[in-house]
Amino acid sequence: MKQLMGVINLDHELDQLNELTYFRCGAAVPFAGRYRLIDFVMSNMMHAGVLDIALFVRRKYRSLMDHLGEGRPWDLDRKRGGLFILPPDWNDPSDVSTGELQHIHNNQDFFERGSAKYVVYSGSQHLSNVDFCDAYEHHLEQGADVTLIYTKVDQLQPEHQSCTRLDVDESGRVTDIHRERDHANVYMEMFIMEKEMFLTLVKQCIAHGESHFFRDAIQKNRNKLNIAGYEYKGYHAVINSLESYYRNSLDLLQPEKYNSLFREQPVHTKIKYEVPAKYLETADVSNSLVANGCQIGGAVQNSILFRGVQVKEGARVHNSIIMQKCVIEENAVLENVILDKDVVISRGRQLQGDVRKPFVVAKDTAI
Fold first, then answer.
1. Which of 115, 105, 122 is nearest to 10 (CA)?
2. Which of 136, 17, 1, 111 is nearest to 56 (CA)?
3. Total count of domains within the chain
């Protein structure tokens, strides 16, 4: 949609996944056997026809840049527009902006050069297949200054505690923004706003020494702005802790959860050409996601294996997430474990975590 330009802001997303974010930002963490967390919001914007996307990054973004490249999987490798990975620029001695507003202020030319009249703004921690076109139409119908995208959560989990909540009246207007933990309306850190109003509010915030757009431009002005709420009713998961990552990953082994995330519209990711998974005669695999390039000779149950994993004869993997090119040697046993990329578990080793707190091994480790 030519009327929308995308902003994915990673500046305020802390490295909350412990060992998984030692060497990468949270948006670059692998998920569901072949994807990265960033892929889901990128794909949602792609399906909405967004042709210009700015990605605001500050730290640990080398892995993210390698994954995204020029944006070809999301049809963003364009001569005009496309994908822009934008760290903040401190070369202007007169710049007084701070926080995430620094990204917007110092990369204002991205907004000025784009022809779109509206901005769709998002983070990467809320996984969904939200229809931004439908949200945009809702924004126009409501005649709103800003439309906040939220979802009603049936069962609140620990990861929802830090989420912002919305009160929405019968007409669809947001009447309050707060953090009451037992409230079901979870704000998904996504909004739509006219570009000119967006830039005007950014300038006002900077002039008053503010640093956070949602908090300082929207939440503090909720009684001055016409704020609409758009309710999203599809698959939703918040990945803001190691425990939420582990539980939501293994939940995808339930067919209804997997289908609700992937069947409505495809999720695009970096293309890697690998041979199909190979199952030896000794393999015993049940209720698991196994990616291309794997070679299985042992037992794998209720687990997710990324590309190129080797599970050798006699090894057992249960309730675990094994990332790219890990090697689990003969007779090793893993239960409730997360292995980051390129980990080697030697013969006969046993690693066991808890379903509420998995045992995690950092990237490039040999045990």
1. 122
2. 111
3. 2
The helix/strand/coil state of 66 is: helix
Q: Which amino acid is at 263?
A: R
What are the DSSP calls for 47-64, one per residue?
HTT--EEEEE--SS-HHH
Question: Does 161 map to a domain?
Answer: yes
What sign for the dihedral angle of Cα 24, 181, 158, 153? negative
Domain boundary residue among 262, 297, 313?
A: 262
pLDDT digits (tens, 9 = 90+) for 338-359: 999 999 999 999 999 999 999 9
Instruction: Looking at the structure, tell me whether residues 127 and 159 fall in a common domain.
Output: yes
DSSP secondary-structure letter at 280?
Answer: -
Q: Cα separations (Å) of 285 from 22, 212, 318?
A: 31, 48, 10
Q: What pLDDT is stored for residue 227 in this prediction? A: 98
The whole domain housing 189 covers 4-262
Same domain, 257 and 284: no
The residue ranges of the chain whose pLDDT is under 50 are none
Same domain assignment for residues 308 and 199: no
Buried b (16+ CB within 10 A) or exposed e, 84-102: bbeebeeeeeeeebebbbb
269 domain residue, yes or no: no
**pLDDT for position 58:** 87
φ, ψ dihedrals at 149, nearest 5°: -95, 130
